[in-house]
Write a structure and sequence with these properties.
Length: 189
Amino acid sequence: MRLYLVRHAEAEEPTSDGCDPQRRLTANGRRQAARAAAFLGRLGLKPAAMWHSPLVRAAETAEILARAVHPRQGPVERAGLNPLDPVGPVADGLAKLDADLVIVGHEPFLGKLAGRLVSGSDSVRAVACGRAGPVCLERSATGAWMLRWAVPPEFLKQLPRPRRSPDRAGAKGKGVGHGASRAARKRRR
């Protein structure tokens, strides 16, 4: 089983009344989530499910990711994934799963969950999850978890922009451009 942990992308600043749960992604946050989605989509992930916390910023990040990785179930809001929730119930629940899963959530929860799975202690920080920076953990046949890879958001910025989907090719009326074949672009020159 592989577990993909993704911290929500950049969100609005908290309001003066402290209304944290309703914070939405910023324009930059949507770009961050789209870069993470493009990266994960290129890997060809086919997770069985995608879970996200009840907070708006995690739900919006999950929706963007889901368009690229097409989980069979999800995105699904799950209780127990908030920033300060205990990781034990989720870690225990993962022991019963066999299929790949994406969890979109928050720090310090995600870092503590990774620590708990890899080391047995949620006080050990196995990884720091940057905004929209995916982390992959894998559980072996013996039940031991290990860190497979972690991609910092700064790395995702360096990747080429994703091409438009085929349904958007030629959206400007010419039929060539992003999504057009190499031969069509060459004829245009």
